[in-house]
């Protein structure tokens, strides 16, 4: 304000005014009407001397004169302004004001204070300037008045001054309120703190905008503990409603105020109220590039993070509290954005907490608590605000990608992408790219793949931004040799996207260099004669073609700069160059066809590209097919001494073509007995790949129909005469002829597999093609016949391999899952001696292993191993593995790595090999299980579309036997597809196990290709939805077969095989419908279990798939029965209703599963457990808002109901009577899981444990193999498993009781007597079960049993010690119950003490190694009981003495002297402590430790 020009009416001058002026003059102060007050002497000292002994009237007159003097605003302003020593001097030195001097005089301070503070309200209205800000200090009378009170040496009446200030505070404007509040800590004394806190708290209720000023004032006060807690609670309460710009200071105040008593509350409130949910547009924070050197003000979020960082740097207590709080959280919905930032801030601060924060972040990511959506909220739109944390985020991302967990890879990859997107400067983006390239150079498969995923995503979304930085990425092209196939595809795809944008979008510097470098590398690799580099070039060329030859989009048509023409031309040039380079090598040609089929199948290529590919496939019929008329060959084919004939002609006389397998084998040799190098041109090597490309082109050009090539499905194959495949004719063939025959069968198998892949797409395809010669029913029939051909050929090839056991086939699938590059099948460097030696060594190894396996199965082999190689009668399971085997995954583990390429043999060594073939080793080899399984990983994979065969039906031959079931006879065919489907699910749904060090594991066996084409698990399940109802249909057929007594109808089976063209005379196949049904039952259950245990199946996006699966297996009748027990009852069609129906249906299969085998029954229980776990996960996640609107569990009683039913199901399996001798002997893991389910899911687990421990387990005999009546799974052989599981379960229940006791004791509400009695009763029941289990050691003297008793006995005592404080607090009211509890536990401690002593004496190491820890627990138990009784009864009821040394049975031991030992642990004192308690009027009981 401006003082000049504003006057107030002055009061009449009287005696007071004269005395005021005269006293000041005498003291050396002259009051002037204009200018500053002049002082010539020490004014303060003279005034104090003058007024010290003066009369009260003089002081009153002086005060009255002062009051009249300041009535004028000009005089008041001069009174508040600094005085000068000499007003006439130019160098006048300002001093303090006259008002300040008067306030320093004790006799005047109170009066002057009242005068000045009363003047303050008169000038409040003058402070309301524009903008609400206070004027400068020299122009503001209120500010000048307040400044007089700062830093006074003393206060005469602080209470009245504080009251006056607080009274004025309520009527001040906002700006002046802040000034007064800031001023308060400088003038008030400690005694006034409570009054000030109360007043300011009330003021905050009226205006929360003052919170920062108030907290700043509080921080300057030395508050007592209760006031300090009140202030902290005030700050915590303001977090929710404070403005964003005030939050940083509030957070800083709270962190500085944290103590050990309130730190947990502060941490919880900060997590609750710091949401960080406001996502700003990152572009809004970008500084103007024209204003160089000018930076925008930091956002409130950045200031909050800085406040947290400074607070965490000061106090380690807060770091510990934050880490503990975040560590205790579980579930995705319970974590917030602030949790991620807290861990990042702790990581950025460094020090000892850096690793703790990083480790906790990894664990949260692995457990799914931190997901990509959460990190998206953390980073999106905050690039400019988080510049300081860029290096921390980069370091965390590097650490995440170095781990072996898939979840951390996805999370780290997403962080890299967000960093590149949010931090837009070149420096930051170069750092991101440099870090990713460093990961690529690590050489670790998982790390390289994750880094390439991030780069590929960036190249897809930010190609233009990456091109200026391409110099950082071009170095990747120099290290392509070390990449796997999957990595090569990502690298070339990434560079192809960059090259496309660089070459055809224009306007980008350095772009042409990227495209030219890529083209140079690709051309060099394609022209390289080494197949390894040629293969890499093919991958790069196809990636380029996929980018250049894409279909023209609507955006391209509307664009002014249309580049489609040049792109297509360049793509066609690359295609022609690849085709010319691959013609000389069949292996390279096969790989090129497979690679090219992928974009064709994806329907992304331009029509010109498709047309060019179609032209290249026109020579297929010329190269592979021959002409047939009336079912007979028109030309005589040269077969080099091996007569041939058409096989498996499905079209009969209508067939016009035939596949020339045998002629091509003769015309283009590719085997090691041929010394020429023409093997690389063998057309059969790329036959299957050619079929795949041909079918893909036909589907693309004919709207999904294969009508123009449907003749391939039924055409015959030209193979050696089937009469040569058995008996003496087979033995008379030379080694070369046998190998040619085996190769013919091998290529025929892969031809049929690729045909099934191609035409399986027609089952569900909805095409309207009038040119199609086959209807859908005919296609289905022929597919099933080809499936019979495939099974027959595989079985026949396995038999033929017995004659050439060391023959190795070429790998026909190109997208291998191993990093081994393609190599020529024939190399002249290996000598004949080395080949035979390696083969014989491998043969012995395989034979021994598989012979042992066959022995372990106890089922033997049906092969005829005596004398000749006459083909024996085989069961259908020989072509598919054993009926209830572990599936394809177990088969792959049993495979041994075959020799590289086919075996070589010339004329000189053929007789030696034939002699070896007929030797004892060859005979032993022929007795082994399937030899073909060792090389199935080289076969072409069946695609996921083949699963649609499961949805087919076949109605054909009507059997004369009325009891023959057509549906059951289809089970062997469906079983083949089901086992392949199981292998696919194992591949895509298995969670990768933690990898061990290379020296801890053996070299992995080659894996069969999955045929999934890189599909993720969720995508596979979505594509399998139409198959789910068929799985239930086949399961019902298998169950019906197991329940019925229908005999095997060999007539029907043989008719179907003959109709498919199988030469049944050389290989009779008998079918066992019970074994087949059992296998189908087992495989379907394993598939269900695999799907239900997939962690992502319960995610929101996958709930429709899960519901579809459950609906397929749901039973309406069973659901209606189950929902009767629920309240409220779920409505039909709801998720709960479907879940009940599925559980009821599966639960009804127990009888059929038990009839099949123990393994099937146990697998059924595992499926039910997986279903219960799915229900549990859906229930835990039902609190999320999105899930509330979706199909989720909302019936509270459903989960307990199905858990109880699961316990009953596990009990049924345990009581299953098997005809096998000791069926549980080798199933320890399975038995353990079933026992855990029996107890954990029971409605009353402790009652069940008490029943088994007290009545069932004591019935187990000491020796023999006979089980307990009613419990066949419980015998002396399995007692150890039952014993250990029951100890584990009772310990879990007792720990739960102790946790409940501790939780109840910490609550502020007092426990009722009934609640305490209930807790003590639960604890007493657990103790009784424990005592009953320990008592079993008296009758069972095995060291393993004793070791378990000692181990869990010590743990049980430790758990008991955790509740001693509670027992001591409740002892007076529940003395009898607590005494009984301790007495009961004493029975177990005595026996455990005896076991420890015996173990030391008899040197039972399994028990002795646990003795020291158990001894310490027992000693703690004794002294804690002593403390309990001493505190409750003043020590009169407890005394301690020495027990007699007794054994487990209670017999006294004559001496305690043990054999001397150097081990200190063996010198543990053998004397036992005895503690006795006698209650008033009660007897004496012993307490032994």
Name its key features:
disordered C terminus, three-stranded antiparallel sheet, 65 helices, mainly alpha
Q: Can you put this structure into words, describing what you see?
A:
It is built from 65 helices and 14 strands. The protein is mostly helical and 1489 residues long. Among the domains are: 15-188, no CATH class; 1093-1147 and 1159-1198, no CATH class; 1288-1488. The strands form six sheets. The chain has a three-stranded antiparallel β-sheet. It has a three-stranded antiparallel β-sheet with strand order 12-13-14. The protein has a two-stranded antiparallel ribbon with strand order 1-2. The chain is flat and about 145 Å long.
Largest sheet properties: 3 strands, antiparallel
Give the C-alpha Rg.
45 Å
Count every helix, treating DSSP H or I runs of 4 or more residues as helices: 65
Average pLDDT works out at 76
Low-confidence stretches: 1-14, 87-92, 278-296, 671-680, 816-929, 996-1003, 1183-1192, 1456-1489
Please give the alpha-carbon distance between the first and last residues: 88 Å
Number of strands: 14
Short description:
The chain is mainly alpha-helical and 1489 residues long. It has a three-stranded antiparallel sheet with strand order 6-5-8. A three-stranded antiparallel sheet has the order 12-13-14.
Layout of SSEs?
Layout: H1 15-27, E1 29-30, E2 38-39, H2 43-52, H3 56-69, H4 73-80, E3 82-84, E4 94-97, H5 98-103, H6 106-122, H7 141-148, H8 158-169, H9 174-183, H10 193-206, H11 211-219, H12 225-238, H13 247-256, H14 263-273, H15 300-314, H16 316-328, H17 337-349, H18 353-366, H19 372-379, H20 390-401, H21 406-422, H22 426-440, H23 445-461, H24 463-466, H25 485-504, H26 511-527, H27 531-548, H28 554-558, H29 564-582, H30 586-601, H31 607-616, H32 620-624, E5 625-629, E6 632-633, E7 644-647, E8 657-659, H33 661-667, H34 687-701, H35 711-714, E9 717-720, H36 727-732, H37 735-759, H38 761-764, H39 776-800, H40 832-857, E10 874-875, H41 888-894, H42 910-917, H43 920-926, H44 966-969, H45 971-989, H46 1017-1023, H47 1028-1043, H48 1050-1059, E11 1069-1070, H49 1073-1092, H50 1103-1112, H51 1116-1123, H52 1135-1147, H53 1150-1156, H54 1158-1180, H55 1185-1188, H56 1198-1214, H57 1228-1240, H58 1245-1256, H59 1279-1306, H60 1313-1335, H61 1343-1361, H62 1364-1369, H63 1375-1402, H64 1405-1408, H65 1411-1433, E12 1438-1443, E13 1472-1478, E14 1484-1488
Parallel strand pairs: 10-11
Antiparallel strand pairs: 1-2, 3-4, 5-6, 5-8, 7-9, 12-13, 13-14
Helix pairs in contact: 1-2, 1-3, 3-6, 6-7, 6-8, 7-9, 9-11, 11-13, 13-15, 14-16, 15-16, 15-17, 16-17, 16-18, 17-18, 17-19, 17-20, 19-21, 20-21, 20-22, 21-23, 22-23, 23-25, 25-26, 25-27, 26-27, 27-29, 27-30, 30-34, 33-37, 34-37, 37-39, 45-49, 47-49, 47-50, 47-53, 49-54, 50-52, 51-52, 52-54, ...
């Amino acid at each position: 304000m401006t003082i000049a020009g504003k006057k107030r009416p002055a009061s009449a001058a009287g005696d007071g005014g004269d005395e005021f002026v005269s006293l000041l003059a005498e003291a050396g102060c002259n009051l002037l009407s204009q200018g500053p007050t002049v002082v010539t002497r020490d004014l303060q000292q003279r005034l104090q001397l003058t007024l010290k002994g003066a009369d009260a009237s003089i002081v009153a007159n002086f005060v009255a004169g002062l009051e009249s003097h300041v009535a004028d605003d000009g005089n008041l302003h001069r009174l508040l302004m600094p005085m000068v020593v000499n007003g006439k001097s130019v160098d006048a030195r300002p001093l303090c004001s006259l008002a300040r001097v008067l306030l320093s005089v004790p006799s005047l301070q109170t009066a002057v204070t009242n005068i000045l503070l009363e003047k303050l309200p008169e000038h409040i209205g003058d402070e309301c300037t524009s903008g609400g800000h206070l004027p400068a200090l020299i122009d503001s009378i209120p500010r000048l008045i307040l400044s007089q009170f700062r830093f006074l040496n003393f206060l005469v009446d602080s209470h009245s001054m504080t009251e006056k200030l607080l009274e004025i505070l309520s009527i001040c404007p906002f700006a002046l309120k802040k000034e007064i509040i800031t001023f308060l800590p400088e003038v008030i004394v400690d005694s006034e703190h409570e009054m000030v806190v109360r007043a300011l708290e009330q003021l905050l209720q009226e205006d929360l905008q003052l919170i920062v000023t108030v907290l700043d004032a509080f921080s300057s006060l030395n508050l007592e503990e209760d006031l300090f807690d009140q202030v902290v609670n005030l700050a915590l309460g303001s977090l929710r409603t404070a403005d964003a710009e005030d939050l940083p200071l509030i957070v800083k105040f709270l962190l500085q105020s944290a103590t050990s008593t309130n730190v947990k509350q502060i941490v919880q409130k900060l997590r609750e109220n710091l949401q960080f949910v406001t996502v700003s547009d990152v572009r809004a924070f970008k500084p103007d590039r024209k204003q160089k050197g000018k930076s925008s003000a930091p956002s409130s979020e950045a200031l909050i993070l800085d406040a947290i960082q400074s607070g965490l740097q000061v106090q380690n207590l807060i770091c510990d509290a934050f880490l503990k709080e975040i560590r205790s959280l579980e579930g995705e919905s319970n974590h917030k954005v602030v949790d991620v930032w807290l861990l990042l801030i702790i990581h950025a601060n460094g020090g000892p907490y850096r690793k703790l924060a990083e480790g906790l972040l990894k664990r949260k990511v692995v457990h799914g608590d931190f997901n990509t959506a959460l990190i998206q909220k953390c980073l999106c739109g905050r690039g400019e605000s988080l510049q300081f944390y860029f290096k921390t985020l980069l370091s965390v991302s590097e650490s995440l990608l170095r781990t072996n967990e898939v979840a951390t890879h996805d999370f780290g990859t997403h962080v890299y992408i967000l960093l590149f997107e949010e931090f837009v400067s070149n420096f930051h983006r170069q750092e991101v790219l440099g870090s990713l390239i460093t990961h690529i150079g690590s050489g670790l498969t998982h790390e390289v793949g994750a880094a390439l995923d991030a780069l590929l995503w960036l190249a897809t979304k930010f190609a233009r931004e990456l091109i200026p930085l391409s110099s950082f990425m071009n170095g990747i092209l120099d290290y392509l040799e070390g990449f796997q196939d999957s990595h090569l595809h990502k690298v070339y795809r990434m560079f192809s996207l960059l090259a496309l944008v660089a070459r055809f979008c224009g306007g980008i510097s350095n772009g042409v260099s990227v495209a030219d470098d890529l083209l140079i590398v690709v051309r060099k690799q394609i022209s390289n004669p080494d197949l390894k580099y040629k293969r890499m070039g093919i991958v790069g060329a196809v990636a380029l073609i996929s980018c250049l030859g894409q279909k023209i989009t609507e955006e391209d048509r509307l664009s002014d700069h249309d580049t489609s023409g040049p792109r297509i031309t360049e793509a066609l040039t690359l295609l022609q160059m690849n085709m010319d380079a691959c013609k000389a090598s069949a292996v390279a040609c096969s790989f090129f066809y497979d690679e090219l089929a992928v974009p064709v199948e994806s329907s992304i290529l331009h029509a010109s590209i498709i047309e060019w590919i179609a032209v290249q496939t026109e020579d297929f019929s010329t190269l592979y097919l021959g002409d047939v008329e009336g079912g007979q060959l028109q030309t005589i084919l040269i077969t080099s001494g091996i007569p041939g004939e058409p096989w498996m002609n499905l079209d009969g006389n209508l067939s016009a073509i035939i596949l020339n397998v045998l002629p091509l084998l003769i015309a283009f040799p590719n085997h090691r007995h041929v010394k020429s190098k023409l093997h690389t041109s063998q057309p059969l090597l790329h036959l299957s790949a050619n079929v795949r490309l041909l079918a893909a082109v036909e589907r693309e050009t004919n709207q999904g129909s294969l009508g123009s090539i449907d003749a391939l499905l039924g055409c015959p194959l030209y193979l050696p005469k089937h009469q040569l495949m058995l008996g003496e004719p087979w033995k008379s063939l030379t080694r070369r002829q046998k190998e040619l025959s085996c190769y013919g069968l091998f290529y025929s198998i892969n031809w049929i597999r690729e045909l099934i892949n191609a035409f399986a797409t027609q089952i569900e395809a909805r095409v309207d093609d009038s040119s199609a010669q086959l209807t859908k029913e005919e296609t289905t029939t022929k597919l099933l016949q080809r499936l019979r051909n495939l099974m027959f050929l595989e079985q026949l090839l396995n038999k033929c391999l017995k004659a050439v056991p060391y023959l190795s086939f070429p790998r026909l699938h190109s997208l291998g899952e191993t990093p081994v590059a393609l190599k020529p099948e024939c190399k002249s460097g290996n000598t004949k001696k080395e080949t035979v030696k390696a083969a014989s060594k491998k043969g012995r190894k395989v034979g021994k292993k598989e012979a042992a396996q066959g022995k372990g199965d106890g089922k033997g082999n049906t092969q005829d191993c005596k004398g000749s190689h006459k083909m024996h009668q085989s069961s259908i399971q020989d072509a598919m593995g054993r009926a209830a085997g572990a599936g394809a995954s177990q088969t792959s583990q049993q495979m041994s790595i075959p020799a590289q390429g086919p075996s070589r043999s010339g004329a000189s060594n053929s007789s030696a090999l034939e002699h070896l073939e007929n030797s004892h080793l060859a005979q032993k080899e022929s007795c082994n299980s399937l030899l073909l399984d060792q090389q199935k990983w080289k076969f072409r994979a069946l695609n996921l579309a083949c699963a649609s065969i499961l949805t087919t039906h076949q109605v054909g031959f009507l059997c004369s036997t009325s009891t023959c079931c057509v549906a059951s006879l289809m089970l062997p065919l469906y079983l083949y597809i089901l086992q392949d489907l199981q292998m696919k699910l194992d591949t895509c749904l298995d969670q990768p196990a933690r990898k061990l060090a290379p020296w801890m594991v053996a070299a992995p066996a080659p894996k069969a290709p999955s045929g999934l084409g890189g599909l993720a698990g969720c995508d596979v399940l979505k594509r399998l939805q139409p198959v789910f109802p068929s799985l239930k249909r086949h399961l019902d057929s298998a169950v019906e077969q197991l329940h019925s007594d229908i005999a095997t109808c060999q007539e029907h089976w043989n008719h179907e095989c003959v109709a498919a063209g199988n030469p049944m005379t050389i290989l009779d196949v008998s079918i066992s419908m019970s074994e087949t049904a059992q296998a189908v039952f087992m495989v379907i259950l394993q598939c269900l279990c695999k799907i239900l245990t997939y962690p992502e199946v319960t995610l929101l996006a996958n709930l429709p798939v899960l519901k579809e699966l459950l609906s397929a297996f749901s039973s309406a009748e069973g659901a209606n029965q189950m929902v009767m027990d629920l309240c409220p009852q779920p409505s039909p069609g709801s998720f709960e209703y479907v879940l009940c129906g599925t559980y009821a249906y599966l639960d009804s299969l127990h009888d059929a599963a038990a009839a099949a085998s123990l393994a099937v029954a146990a697998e059924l229980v595992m499926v039910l457990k997986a279903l219960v776990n799915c229900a549990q996960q859906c229930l835990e996640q039902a609190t999320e808002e999105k899930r509330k609107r979706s199909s989720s569990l909302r019936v509270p009683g459903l989960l307990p109901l199905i858990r109880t039913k699961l316990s009953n199901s596990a009990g049924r399996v345990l009581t299953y009577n098997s005809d096998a001798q000791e069926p549980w002997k080798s199933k320890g893991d399975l038995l353990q899981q079933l026992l855990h389910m029996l107890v954990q899911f029971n409605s009353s687990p402790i009652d069940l444990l008490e029943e088994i421990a007290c009545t069932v387990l004591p019935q187990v005999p000491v020796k023999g193999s006979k089980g307990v009546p009613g419990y066949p799974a419980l015998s002396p052989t399995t007692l150890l498993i039952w014993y250990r599981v029951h100890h584990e379960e009772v310990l879990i229940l007792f720990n739960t009781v102790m946790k409940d006791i501790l939780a109840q004791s910490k609550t502020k509400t007092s426990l009722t007597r009934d609640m305490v009695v209930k807790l003590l009763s639960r604890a007493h029941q657990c103790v009784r079960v424990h005592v009953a289990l320990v008592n079993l050691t008296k009758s069972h003297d095995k060291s393993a049993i004793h070791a378990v008793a000692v181990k869990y006995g010590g743990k049980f005592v430790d758990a008991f010690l955790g509740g001693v404080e509670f027992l001591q607090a409740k002892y007076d009211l529940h003395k009898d119950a607590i005494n009984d509890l301790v007495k009961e536990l004493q029975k177990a401690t005595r026996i455990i003490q005896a076991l420890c002593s015996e173990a030391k004496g008899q040197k039972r190491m399994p028990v002795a190694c646990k003795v020291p820890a158990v001894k310490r627990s027992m000693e703690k138990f004794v002294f804690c009981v002593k403390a309990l009784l001493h505190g409750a009864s003043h020590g009169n009821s407890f005394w301690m003495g020495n027990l007699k040394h007794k054994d487990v049975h209670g017999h006294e031991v004559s001496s305690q002297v043990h054999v001397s030992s150097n081990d200190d642990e063996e010198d543990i004192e053998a004397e036992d402590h005895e503690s006795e308690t006698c209650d008033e009027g009660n007897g004496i009981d012993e307490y032994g430790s």
